[in-house]
């Protein structure tokens, strides 16, 4: 018989695999990251699942663009039979730079359709943070 902790690991692993499969089924998803307490190994039984996505398409209206992560989170939660409050998705291209940097630093990529897109996102975020950091350093001097 498996210990509860081991069973929890299997469930977590299966859940992350299911999320990667959902991402692979959606042609609009280029990269899927896990971040937050589940990515750092500090999750508790009540921790939600924090995901970030780099979307392929950016031609929708501003309203659709804003709602896309929330709508997808609701769809995926329903598909995985999770409470809607258990799944949180952000668009990495609209996330505040400090959050985007934490996402890529967590280094928990669950799905990649295009490895060059992953590299571009990581470079873009790092560059923006570096420029912003240097700007604030100069202002402080």
TrEMBL record:
Pfam families according to UniProt: Polbeta
UniProtKB keywords: Transferase
Record-annotated Polymerase beta nucleotidyltransferase domain positions: 18-115
An annotated Gene Ontology molecular function: transferase activity
Gene3D superfamilies, sorted: Beta Polymerase, domain 2
Name the record gives this protein: Putative nucleotidyltransferase
Organism: Chromatocurvus halotolerans
